[in-house]
Amino acid sequence: MIKRLTRRNLEDAGSSGSLNDLSFLLIIFFIVIAGFNVNKGFLLNLPSKEKPIVVNTEDILKCSLTADGRILMEGNETPLAELSSLVDAKLKTWPNLTFLLTIDSECPYQNVVNVISTIRKLKVENFSFRME
Asked: Which pTM does this prediction carry?
């Protein structure tokens, strides 16, 4: 008796549901354990509703940024390099100094970042800004 060799039909590996499930679970696993790098920007602490901060109007140092990027401190034009020394001198005389920055809506963003960075380096605790 002669035995005939028959070929078995192989199933398509792509149609296997278990491999699809496994790949889906691996994708979910790697998304969950992946560390995402998020740009934090400026971290500003907002005052709490229970403890409102009362600011004396004499302790406010007013500064404004114009549309062309100039810094005006109490009406006088001030370069960014001098801003640090002026605020530091005021901070020594007024420990409860509040820095109020008024920003023109057409001012370049980098100038705003430069001023805020300078004020943060001086560790001014009370900082406020508004857009015109």
From this structure: 0.57
CA-to-CA distance for 67 and 81, rounded, in angstroms? Answer: 19
Domain membership flag for residue 4: no
Q: Which two three-digit tokens encode residue 106?
A: 């057409």
* Residue where the block lists tokens 């300078």: 118
| Structure-token match 């057409």, residue found | 106
Specify if 33 maps to a domain: no
Domain of residue 120, residue span:
57-131
Residue 68: CATH number of its domain? 3.30.420.270
Q: What is the pLDDT of residues 1-20, one digit of tens each?
A: 677 777 766 666 556 667 77
82-114, pLDDT tens digit by residue? Answer: 888 888 888 888 878 888 888 998 988 888 888
Q: Which residues of 55-84 are buried (b: 16+ CB within 10 A; e: fewer)?
A: eeeeeebebbbbeebebebeeeebeeeebe
| Dihedral over Cα of 69, 70, 71, 72: its sign | negative
